[in-house]
Amino acid sequence: MNNKQQQRSDTIRDRYRINNRIRAREVRLIDEQGTQVGIVAIQEAQRMAEERGVDLVEVAPNANPPVCRLMDYGKFRYEQSKKEREARKNQKQTDLKEVRLKPRTSEHDLSVKAKQARRFLSSGDKVKFTVRFKGREMAHTDIGREMLDMVMDQLRDISIVEQKPTLESRALSLVLAPNARVLKAAQQAVRDQNRRIREEKQRRAAGADNGQVGDEAAPDDEDEALEPEDEDVDAVTALDDDDDLDDADLDDDDDLDDDDTDDDEEEQEDDSARQRRSNERGSKREKRR
Q: Cβ contacts of residue 214 below 8 Å, gap of 6+?
């Protein structure tokens, strides 16, 4: 056991009075199973602890009468030390981050610094803004105060002012602490987002598993899908028959067109013959004259 562990053990031992160190005349006694025995004299409680081979531990000294419990004090000290270690492990240590500014810092750079401070505050850290003055700049500390006012205004939604702008030597300082309510809400939002991401991953994984099952059942569906091919063949044959009918219709139309053409040619020949006979009769009349 190192020095730190020894100190923690001594602290726990000093925190609780046990056995003969208990000074009350009577106590409210609780046995090992957590059952209340009642109010008994301290001598009776110590005798019961000795008979059962356990310790009498004063767990609530401020009660009237004090509450004592029968237990294994060594095991109790170990469990208490373990709980304290877990609490320290889960407790986030708050750091103080410093953001340094100058009187000549532009508004754009100041906004960038404020965004950086916002990240620190969102992580639960405090932020100290420091405006340092050199030489004749000390005559214009009001510029530094205006800059810090702008910072407070930009970070008002996420922070509280722990230390107002204070001039120390050649530096003007402002300390902002995270707003506990806003920080808790932001952390809850992050937890909710992480939960939604986990649920989405689980849903996708379940969907992938269902997809594999569907692929295994796919061959049966494909066999069933291949059966109607005969219907497609019949449809193609029917189309071929229709094509034959169309071709036959076209042939008939061609025959009709040919007959019409022959009749037209005969009529043209008759007209030509009549025209020749008319011309011949006209020539004869002119000769007679």
A: none
Query: Between 180-226 and 107-122, two packed helices, what is the crossing angle to 10 degrees?
Result: 80
Place of tokens 């008979």: 51
The pair of three-digit structure tokens given for residue 73, joined into one six-digit string: 């004090």
Residues 58 and 127 in one domain: no
Query: Quick one: tokens of 209?
Result: 């598993």
Task: Give dist(CA 124, CA 100) in Å, integer.
Answer: 19
126 has which bridge partners? 96
- How far is 178 from 162, CA to CA, in rounded Å? 9
Q: Output the pLDDT for position 175.
A: 95
Reported as half-sphere exposure (CB side, CA atoms, 13 A), residue 229 has a value of 6
Query: In the chain, how many domains are there?
Result: 2
- Averaged pLDDT, 130-139: 92
CB half-sphere exposure, 280, CA atoms < 13 A: 6
Q: Residue 180's closest CA among 203, 150, 158, 148?
A: 158
Lowest mean pLDDT among 20-24, 189-193, 208-212: 208-212
Q: How far, in Å, CA of 122 to CA of 182, rounded?
A: 9
| Tens-digit pLDDT profile for residues 163-175 | 999 998 899 999 9
Q: What per-residue confidence (pLDDT) applies to 16?
A: 86
What CATH number is associated with residue 131?
3.30.110.10
